[in-house]
Design brief:
Length: about 80
Protein backbone atom coordinates (compact mmCIF):
# COMPACT_ATOMS: atom_id res chain seq x y z
CA UNK A 1 0.00 0.00 0.00
CA UNK A 2 2.79 2.43 0.88
CA UNK A 3 5.42 0.99 -1.48
CA UNK A 4 4.93 3.67 -4.16
CA UNK A 5 5.32 6.63 -1.82
CA UNK A 6 8.49 8.67 -2.07
CA UNK A 7 9.96 11.45 0.01
CA UNK A 8 8.03 14.05 -1.98
CA UNK A 9 4.75 12.35 -1.15
CA UNK A 10 5.53 12.49 2.56
CA UNK A 11 6.44 16.18 2.30
CA UNK A 12 3.11 16.91 0.60
CA UNK A 13 1.25 14.93 3.27
CA UNK A 14 3.12 16.84 5.99
CA UNK A 15 2.22 20.17 4.34
CA UNK A 16 -1.46 19.20 4.20
CA UNK A 17 -1.39 18.21 7.88
CA UNK A 18 0.22 21.54 8.77
CA UNK A 19 -2.46 23.39 6.82
CA UNK A 20 -5.30 21.44 8.44
CA UNK A 21 -4.16 21.53 12.04
CA UNK A 22 -1.85 24.52 12.11
CA UNK A 23 1.68 24.60 13.50
CA UNK A 24 0.51 25.71 16.95
CA UNK A 25 -1.76 22.71 17.46
CA UNK A 26 0.73 20.02 16.37
CA UNK A 27 2.74 19.91 19.63
CA UNK A 28 -0.46 19.58 21.65
CA UNK A 29 -1.66 16.85 19.28
CA UNK A 30 1.64 14.98 19.63
CA UNK A 31 1.52 15.32 23.43
CA UNK A 32 -2.05 14.04 23.51
CA UNK A 33 -1.15 11.05 21.34
CA UNK A 34 1.84 10.27 23.57
CA UNK A 35 -0.30 10.38 26.71
CA UNK A 36 -2.91 8.15 25.08
CA UNK A 37 -0.24 5.63 24.11
CA UNK A 38 1.16 5.69 27.66
CA UNK A 39 -2.28 5.08 29.18
CA UNK A 40 -2.97 2.26 26.71
CA UNK A 41 0.37 0.63 27.52
CA UNK A 42 -0.34 0.88 31.26
CA UNK A 43 -3.79 -0.68 30.85
CA UNK A 44 -2.36 -3.55 28.80
CA UNK A 45 0.26 -4.18 31.50
CA UNK A 46 -2.44 -4.16 34.19
CA UNK A 47 -4.54 -6.64 32.21
CA UNK A 48 -1.57 -9.00 31.85
CA UNK A 49 -0.89 -8.77 35.60
CA UNK A 50 -4.56 -9.49 36.33
CA UNK A 51 -4.50 -12.54 34.06
CA UNK A 52 -1.33 -13.79 35.76
CA UNK A 53 -2.81 -13.28 39.22
CA UNK A 54 -6.06 -14.94 38.15
CA UNK A 55 -4.15 -17.95 36.82
CA UNK A 56 -2.28 -18.32 40.13
CA UNK A 57 -5.54 -18.04 42.08
CA UNK A 58 -7.17 -20.74 39.93
CA UNK A 59 -4.22 -23.11 40.44
CA UNK A 60 -4.36 -22.62 44.23
CA UNK A 61 -8.14 -23.11 44.27
CA UNK A 62 -7.80 -26.27 42.17
CA UNK A 63 -5.16 -27.76 44.45
CA UNK A 64 -7.27 -27.02 47.54
CA UNK A 65 -10.44 -28.47 46.03
CA UNK A 66 -8.61 -31.66 45.05
CA UNK A 67 -7.39 -32.27 48.61
CA UNK A 68 -8.83 -35.42 50.18
CA UNK A 69 -11.82 -34.91 52.42
CA UNK A 70 -11.99 -36.81 55.70
CA UNK A 71 -15.34 -37.76 57.07
CA UNK A 72 -15.73 -38.39 60.76
CA UNK A 73 -18.69 -40.42 61.98
CA UNK A 74 -19.53 -41.95 65.30
CA UNK A 75 -20.01 -45.71 65.40
CA UNK A 76 -22.46 -47.54 67.66
CA UNK A 77 -20.06 -47.48 70.64
CA UNK A 78 -19.65 -43.66 70.36
CA UNK A 79 -16.04 -43.83 69.08
CA UNK A 80 -15.29 -41.55 66.14
CA UNK A 81 -14.32 -43.29 62.89
CA UNK A 82 -12.28 -41.39 60.32
CA UNK A 83 -12.76 -42.27 56.65
CA UNK A 84 -10.60 -40.96 53.81
Amino acid sequence: MLQGLTGWHFLIILAVILLLFGAAKLPALAKSMGQSARVFKGEMKAMKEDETAEGKTESVATSVSEAPVRQTTANASGVADTKS
